[in-house]
Amino acid sequence: MREIQSAVITEAVKAITMEASICLEPDILDALVQARDRETSPLAKNVLNILMVNADIASREKIPVCQDTGVAVVFAEVGQDVRVEGSLEEAIQKGVKDGYEEGYLRKSICDPVTRKNTGTNTPAVIHYEIVPGDTIKLSMLPKGCGSENMSGLVMLPPSAGIQGMVDFVVDLVVKAGSNPCPPVTVGVGMGGTFEKAALLAKKSLFRPLGQAAERDDVAQLEKEILDKINEKGSGVHGLGGCNTALAVHIEAFPSHIASLPVAVNIQCHAHRHKEVTL
Q1: DSSP letter (8 states) at residue 246
Q2: Which of the 8 DSSP states describes residue 41?
């Protein structure tokens, strides 16, 4: 049984918390370049250039790529042969708190009733999964609420079929317009239960941008939905063109014969996320 000190976990979470808000991953930057190169609207093309300049400045100057540094969402894949010295939950929460403090990141978390700010950007939302092995993988997603607020979930009847699912996803993203700061990444959870579909939608956002689903039929749905969104959507920041979305990622899970849950979690153009394995 391998042991990991809680202090090591805290330091790792602090590091990825700060890095996620400052540096976009290479696949995100590459997708923005490709979007600019195929863009049909001169105004939208100019905005994409500005977004890339902004990302470059943020990385070089070590400042947030967006003023909304989001809700800290952490996925923790914990190996079954790992023992944490101390509390894993407390170690992660402290890492988030320290990262937002030392990184001078905006603290946006407040009580849902009183609306009083917690002052630390905690508690973070943490999802745990027990997996084989003796490591802990921590994935950080600072979720800005311009995009989060445009997400949605529906419990479709099975009679709605695949077409009903496609229509729901496309309509939701198109109606969101410029609110989620497109070009967006669209995470879709299909199947399971009410809460499982939502979790799948968010988890899908960690997949390398544009990497197709393993199942051929699901990958085809991703392409179909992406094409329809870009055909009908309002484009980059609502300014027209052909790049409302950069990618659609679908995660499918078996569901009850009497229901078809579908969740959509939208991510803005600044698709911030970082991972570390201990």
Answers
A1: E
A2: -
